[in-house]
Recover the amino acids of this structure.
Protein backbone atom coordinates (compact mmCIF):
# COMPACT_ATOMS: atom_id res chain seq x y z
CA UNK A 1 0.00 0.00 0.00
CA UNK A 2 1.31 3.44 -0.89
CA UNK A 3 1.60 5.51 2.23
CA UNK A 4 2.70 8.79 0.63
CA UNK A 5 2.43 9.99 -2.95
CA UNK A 6 3.97 13.10 -4.51
CA UNK A 7 3.00 14.50 -7.89
CA UNK A 8 5.11 17.06 -9.72
CA UNK A 9 5.29 18.61 -13.17
CA UNK A 10 8.03 16.96 -15.23
CA UNK A 11 10.52 19.83 -15.24
CA UNK A 12 14.05 19.88 -13.87
CA UNK A 13 13.25 22.83 -11.63
CA UNK A 14 10.30 21.07 -10.02
CA UNK A 15 12.18 17.79 -9.83
CA UNK A 16 14.90 19.46 -7.74
CA UNK A 17 12.29 20.35 -5.14
CA UNK A 18 10.80 16.88 -5.43
CA UNK A 19 14.13 15.19 -4.77
CA UNK A 20 14.71 17.30 -1.66
CA UNK A 21 11.26 16.18 -0.53
CA UNK A 22 12.16 12.55 -1.24
CA UNK A 23 15.18 12.80 1.06
CA UNK A 24 13.13 14.32 3.83
CA UNK A 25 10.33 11.78 3.54
CA UNK A 26 12.90 8.96 3.47
CA UNK A 27 14.44 10.48 6.62
CA UNK A 28 11.06 10.37 8.33
CA UNK A 29 10.60 6.69 7.42
CA UNK A 30 14.15 6.01 8.59
CA UNK A 31 13.42 7.54 11.95
CA UNK A 32 10.14 5.67 12.33
CA UNK A 33 11.59 2.29 11.34
CA UNK A 34 15.01 2.44 13.03
CA UNK A 35 14.14 4.71 15.94
CA UNK A 36 17.20 6.80 15.14
CA UNK A 37 17.36 10.40 13.99
CA UNK A 38 19.46 10.38 10.81
CA UNK A 39 22.44 12.72 10.84
CA UNK A 40 23.39 14.95 7.95
CA UNK A 41 25.72 12.27 6.68
CA UNK A 42 23.70 9.14 6.12
CA UNK A 43 24.46 6.58 3.41
CA UNK A 44 20.88 5.31 3.32
CA UNK A 45 19.46 8.77 2.65
CA UNK A 46 22.25 9.70 0.22
CA UNK A 47 21.52 6.54 -1.76
CA UNK A 48 17.76 7.07 -1.90
CA UNK A 49 18.21 10.73 -2.84
CA UNK A 50 20.63 9.95 -5.66
CA UNK A 51 18.69 7.01 -7.10
CA UNK A 52 15.35 8.83 -6.97
CA UNK A 53 16.97 11.95 -8.41
CA UNK A 54 18.38 10.01 -11.33
CA UNK A 55 15.03 8.33 -11.95
CA UNK A 56 13.14 11.64 -11.86
CA UNK A 57 15.69 13.36 -14.09
CA UNK A 58 15.35 10.57 -16.65
CA UNK A 59 11.57 10.93 -16.52
CA UNK A 60 11.93 14.64 -17.37
CA UNK A 61 14.61 14.01 -19.98
CA UNK A 62 12.40 11.57 -21.87
CA UNK A 63 9.22 13.64 -21.63
CA UNK A 64 7.81 14.57 -25.04
CA UNK A 65 9.75 17.55 -26.40
CA UNK A 66 8.26 20.86 -25.42
CA UNK A 67 5.56 19.27 -23.32
CA UNK A 68 7.49 18.43 -20.19
CA UNK A 69 5.58 20.86 -17.98
CA UNK A 70 2.29 19.35 -19.10
CA UNK A 71 3.45 15.91 -18.03
CA UNK A 72 3.40 14.77 -14.46
CA UNK A 73 5.51 12.33 -12.62
CA UNK A 74 4.60 10.63 -9.42
CA UNK A 75 6.78 9.44 -6.57
CA UNK A 76 5.20 6.90 -4.25
CA UNK A 77 6.59 5.59 -0.97
CA UNK A 78 5.85 2.33 0.75
CA UNK A 79 7.34 -0.01 3.32
CA UNK A 80 8.06 -3.65 2.53
CA UNK A 81 9.44 -5.51 5.53
CA UNK A 82 12.71 -3.74 6.33
CA UNK A 83 12.90 -1.97 2.99
CA UNK A 84 11.87 1.50 1.91
CA UNK A 85 10.24 1.33 -1.52
CA UNK A 86 10.24 4.40 -3.75
CA UNK A 87 8.36 4.18 -7.03
CA UNK A 88 8.84 6.75 -9.78
CA UNK A 89 6.00 6.76 -12.31
CA UNK A 90 5.74 8.60 -15.61
CA UNK A 91 3.69 8.35 -18.77
CA UNK A 92 6.53 8.60 -21.26
CA UNK A 93 7.09 6.02 -23.99
CA UNK A 94 7.89 2.55 -22.70
CA UNK A 95 11.52 1.49 -22.68
CA UNK A 96 13.35 -1.80 -22.48
CA UNK A 97 14.89 -1.62 -19.03
CA UNK A 98 16.51 -5.04 -19.31
CA UNK A 99 18.67 -4.03 -22.26
CA UNK A 100 20.01 -0.76 -20.81
CA UNK A 101 23.77 -1.23 -20.74
CA UNK A 102 26.10 0.18 -18.09
CA UNK A 103 28.26 3.11 -19.18
CA UNK A 104 31.48 2.44 -21.10
CA UNK A 105 33.77 3.51 -18.27
CA UNK A 106 36.87 3.34 -20.46
CA UNK A 107 35.45 6.24 -22.48
CA UNK A 108 34.18 8.29 -19.49
CA UNK A 109 30.95 9.30 -21.23
CA UNK A 110 29.24 12.60 -20.42
CA UNK A 111 25.86 10.94 -19.80
CA UNK A 112 24.20 7.56 -19.45
CA UNK A 113 24.97 6.90 -15.78
CA UNK A 114 21.42 7.17 -14.43
CA UNK A 115 20.19 3.58 -14.31
CA UNK A 116 23.67 2.34 -13.45
CA UNK A 117 23.75 4.66 -10.40
CA UNK A 118 20.28 3.49 -9.33
CA UNK A 119 21.42 -0.13 -9.45
CA UNK A 120 24.67 0.62 -7.62
CA UNK A 121 23.04 2.51 -4.75
CA UNK A 122 19.82 0.52 -4.29
CA UNK A 123 19.35 -3.05 -3.12
CA UNK A 124 16.83 -3.69 -5.89
CA UNK A 125 15.73 -1.80 -8.99
CA UNK A 126 12.93 -3.09 -11.19
CA UNK A 127 10.79 -1.77 -14.01
CA UNK A 128 7.30 -2.46 -15.22
CA UNK A 129 4.94 -0.93 -17.73
CA UNK A 130 1.37 -0.80 -16.47
CA UNK A 131 -1.71 1.03 -17.76
CA UNK A 132 0.40 3.45 -19.79
CA UNK A 133 2.81 4.18 -16.93
CA UNK A 134 6.50 3.44 -16.64
CA UNK A 135 7.10 2.39 -13.04
CA UNK A 136 10.62 2.24 -11.66
CA UNK A 137 10.70 0.58 -8.29
CA UNK A 138 13.66 1.32 -6.03
CA UNK A 139 14.19 -0.66 -2.83
CA UNK A 140 16.66 0.16 -0.08
CA UNK A 141 17.03 -1.72 3.16
CA UNK A 142 16.97 0.26 6.39
CA UNK A 143 20.03 -0.12 8.55
CA UNK A 144 22.54 0.86 5.87
CA UNK A 145 22.68 4.43 7.06
CA UNK A 146 25.57 4.65 9.43
CA UNK B 1 23.41 26.58 -7.50
CA UNK B 2 25.64 29.57 -6.96
CA UNK B 3 28.93 29.91 -8.80
CA UNK B 4 31.54 32.32 -7.46
CA UNK B 5 34.63 33.00 -9.54
CA UNK B 6 37.93 34.30 -8.25
CA UNK B 7 40.93 34.90 -10.46
CA UNK B 8 44.16 33.47 -9.04
CA UNK B 9 47.69 33.93 -10.34
CA UNK B 10 47.65 30.96 -12.70
CA UNK B 11 44.10 29.74 -12.63
CA UNK B 12 40.45 30.60 -12.14
CA UNK B 13 38.89 29.35 -8.92
CA UNK B 14 35.18 28.55 -9.21
CA UNK B 15 33.42 27.83 -5.92
CA UNK B 16 30.09 26.08 -6.29
CA UNK B 17 27.40 26.15 -3.63
CA UNK B 18 24.19 24.18 -3.52
CA UNK B 19 22.88 21.30 -5.57
CA UNK B 20 24.93 20.45 -8.64
CA UNK B 21 22.26 18.50 -10.47
CA UNK B 22 20.96 18.19 -14.01
CA UNK B 23 19.07 21.47 -13.55
CA UNK B 24 22.29 23.32 -12.64
CA UNK B 25 24.45 21.64 -15.27
CA UNK B 26 23.53 24.00 -18.11
CA UNK B 27 24.34 27.07 -15.99
CA UNK B 28 27.72 25.61 -15.12
CA UNK B 29 28.53 24.75 -18.74
CA UNK B 30 27.49 28.25 -19.82
CA UNK B 31 29.73 29.82 -17.16
CA UNK B 32 32.63 27.68 -18.36
CA UNK B 33 31.92 28.54 -22.00
CA UNK B 34 31.94 32.26 -21.20
CA UNK B 35 35.19 32.12 -19.22
CA UNK B 36 36.89 29.91 -21.78
CA UNK B 37 35.88 32.32 -24.55
CA UNK B 38 37.64 35.03 -22.51
CA UNK B 39 40.82 32.98 -22.66
CA UNK B 40 40.69 31.21 -19.31
CA UNK B 41 41.89 27.63 -19.64
CA UNK B 42 43.02 26.52 -16.16
CA UNK B 43 40.36 26.03 -13.52
CA UNK B 44 39.99 24.89 -9.95
CA UNK B 45 36.46 23.80 -9.09
CA UNK B 46 35.84 23.89 -5.34
CA UNK B 47 33.01 21.51 -4.44
CA UNK B 48 33.23 21.84 -0.65
CA UNK B 49 29.83 23.56 -0.47
CA UNK B 50 28.06 21.29 -2.94
CA UNK B 51 25.46 19.33 -0.98
CA UNK B 52 24.45 17.00 -3.82
CA UNK B 53 25.75 15.99 -7.21
CA UNK B 54 24.07 13.75 -9.75
CA UNK B 55 25.12 12.39 -13.12
CA UNK B 56 23.93 15.59 -14.81
CA UNK B 57 26.27 17.74 -12.76
CA UNK B 58 29.08 15.28 -13.19
CA UNK B 59 28.49 15.13 -16.94
CA UNK B 60 28.81 18.91 -17.21
CA UNK B 61 32.23 18.67 -15.52
CA UNK B 62 33.31 16.00 -18.02
CA UNK B 63 32.04 18.09 -20.95
CA UNK B 64 33.85 21.17 -19.67
CA UNK B 65 37.08 19.26 -19.05
CA UNK B 66 37.11 18.03 -22.64
CA UNK B 67 36.56 21.56 -23.93
CA UNK B 68 39.37 23.13 -21.91
CA UNK B 69 41.77 20.32 -22.76
CA UNK B 70 41.27 21.17 -26.43
CA UNK B 71 43.00 24.46 -25.62
CA UNK B 72 45.64 22.83 -23.42
CA UNK B 73 43.82 23.78 -20.24
CA UNK B 74 42.72 21.75 -17.26
CA UNK B 75 40.06 21.47 -14.57
CA UNK B 76 41.26 20.43 -11.11
CA UNK B 77 38.72 19.42 -8.50
CA UNK B 78 39.01 20.41 -4.85
CA UNK B 79 37.37 19.55 -1.54
CA UNK B 80 35.02 16.66 -2.17
CA UNK B 81 32.70 15.64 0.65
CA UNK B 82 32.31 11.89 1.15
CA UNK B 83 28.85 12.09 -0.43
CA UNK B 84 30.10 13.81 -3.58
CA UNK B 85 33.27 11.71 -3.74
CA UNK B 86 31.17 8.55 -3.81
CA UNK B 87 29.46 9.66 -7.04
CA UNK B 88 32.85 10.43 -8.60
CA UNK B 89 34.00 6.96 -7.62
CA UNK B 90 30.91 5.02 -8.69
CA UNK B 91 31.04 6.60 -12.14
CA UNK B 92 34.89 6.26 -12.33
CA UNK B 93 34.92 9.93 -13.34
CA UNK B 94 37.61 10.59 -10.72
CA UNK B 95 40.09 8.94 -13.10
CA UNK B 96 40.10 11.83 -15.58
CA UNK B 97 40.40 14.63 -13.00
CA UNK B 98 43.20 15.63 -10.67
CA UNK B 99 41.51 15.86 -7.26
CA UNK B 100 42.90 17.89 -4.36
CA UNK B 101 42.00 18.05 -0.69
CA UNK B 102 41.65 21.84 -0.78
CA UNK B 103 41.28 24.64 -3.29
CA UNK B 104 44.52 26.13 -1.96
CA UNK B 105 46.50 23.03 -2.89
CA UNK B 106 44.81 22.85 -6.30
CA UNK B 107 45.63 26.50 -7.01
CA UNK B 108 49.18 25.90 -5.76
CA UNK B 109 49.59 23.01 -8.18
CA UNK B 110 49.21 25.40 -11.14
CA UNK B 111 51.61 27.84 -9.51
CA UNK B 112 54.16 25.07 -8.96
CA UNK B 113 53.94 24.10 -12.63
CA UNK B 114 54.45 27.71 -13.63
CA UNK B 115 57.59 27.88 -11.50
CA UNK B 116 58.82 24.67 -13.12
CA UNK B 117 58.41 26.19 -16.56
CA UNK B 118 55.24 24.44 -17.63
CA UNK B 119 53.53 26.85 -20.06
CA UNK B 120 50.86 28.90 -18.33
CA UNK B 121 47.34 28.39 -19.52
CA UNK B 122 45.71 31.52 -18.16
Amino acid sequence: MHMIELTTPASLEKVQLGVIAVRNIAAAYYQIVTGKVPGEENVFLDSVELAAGEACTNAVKYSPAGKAEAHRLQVCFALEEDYLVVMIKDQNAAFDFATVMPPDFAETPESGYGIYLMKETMDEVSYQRKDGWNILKLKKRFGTGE
Amino acid sequence: MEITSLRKTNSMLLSLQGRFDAGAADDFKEKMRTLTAQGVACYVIDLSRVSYIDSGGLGSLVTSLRRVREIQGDIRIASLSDKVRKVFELTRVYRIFDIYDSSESAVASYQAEAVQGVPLCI
